[in-house]
Design brief:
Strand order of the largest sheet: 1-3-2-4-5
CATH topology of the largest domain: Cytochrome Bc1 Complex, Chain D, domain 2
Structural class: alpha/beta
Bound molecules: heme C
Helix content: 40-55%
CATH class of the largest domain: Mainly Alpha
Radius of gyration: 22 Å
Order of helices and strands: HHHHHHHEHEHHEEEH
Length: about 260
């Protein structure tokens, strides 16, 4: 009997766990939009004074990136940082004040200070929101980039389908790696080219070993292997804009034998 009760309690803790997504949808989404590609956001804020998208507040993705970068210590583990975000949110929802905000002032200058939500969001809801907002940016990068394979899968698929392996080397928290993923790897043209002729994998260069004895370069870096799995086509270091990266992919295609 005791066991059954424990089991029921255990299961109900899942059933009644608050979903950060639902809380956000009900209490925040009226002002804060969901994902909008970074290129559109930059153009909207930096070139059109927010007249292109007429946003009411920073997007959820902007909150997510800013929180991860600026609240607490980003090198701590995720759980510790989520707790710091919870504390920040609890304070901001009660006492909003733009000068305390962590989103770039180049963006928040287009908005009035957020109205206080004192008493409208419970502690549990804030906890769920902190976790949801923290996880959102990485989820969006994965959802909006081309499919990512493991190194082994990538080498196999490339051989089978006659494609080029692209290994994107990164280290956690490297700002230019994040910029590359956020602005370039989610670009529609880049995705089209990658989908057609490449197989994409990411390697954390702090722990991963590159195939073919390739030397590790600064991050982000891009390592291209031909579909035979044996020929290194190129190794390139550094961030590139969408146009620069498209040119690079073009030049790699010309070097490939197959
Ligand atoms: C009525 C519109 C509105 C609602 C509803 C709203 N916000 Fe905001 N929020 C804003 C605006 C406008 C800003 C930008 C100005 C500012 O920073 O105060 C903002 C800014 C913020 C910031 C500060 C960003 C920074 O620079 O660090 C946080 C945090 C935030 N909102 C969280 C939330 C959460 C979480 C919810 C839901 C529980 C929510 N907001 C609901 C309008 C709103």
């Amino acid at each position: 009997m005791k066991m059954i009760l424990t089991l029921i309690l255990f299961l109900s803790s899942f059933l009644f766990a608050l979903s950060g997504e639902e809380v956000f949808d009900k209490k925040c989404a009226a002002c804060h939009s969901y994902y909008i590609p970074q290129s559109q956001l930059l153009s909207n804020f930096l070139e059109h004074n927010n007249t292109a998208l007429n946003l009411k507040a920073p997007t959820l993705n902007q909150l997510s990136f800013a929180f991860k970068e600026k609240i607490g210590n980003k090198r701590e583990d995720a759980e510790a940082q989520k707790i710091n975000i919870e504390v920040f949110l609890a304070d901001y929802l009660d006492h909003p004040d733009k000068s305390k905000g962590v989103v770039s002032k180049k963006i928040t200058k287009y908005f009035e200070t957020m109205p206080s939500m004192k008493g409208k969001v419970s502690e549990e809801e804030i906890e769920a929101l902190a976790s949801y907002i923290y996880d959102y940016s990485e989820k969006m990068i994965i959802q909006h980039s081309v499919k990512r394979y493991s190194m082994e899968e990538a080498l196999q698929i490339a051989k089978k389908e006659g494609k080029i392996v692209l290994i994107e080397g990164y280290i956690p928290f490297c700002p230019w790696c994040i910029k590359m993923d956020r602005e370039v790897m989610v670009n529609e043209k880049v995705k089209e080219v990658l989908n057609k002729d490449f197989v994409y994998t990411k390697a954390n260069l702090l722990i991963a070993k590159l195939p073919l004895g390739m030397k590790i370069l600064g991050t982000p870096s891009f390592y291209f292997i031909d579909s035979d799995g044996k020929t290194i086509l190129d190794m390139v270091e550094g961030y590139g804009t969408v146009d620069e990266f498209l040119l690079l992919l073009q030049s790699i295609k010309q070097k490939a034998k197959h």
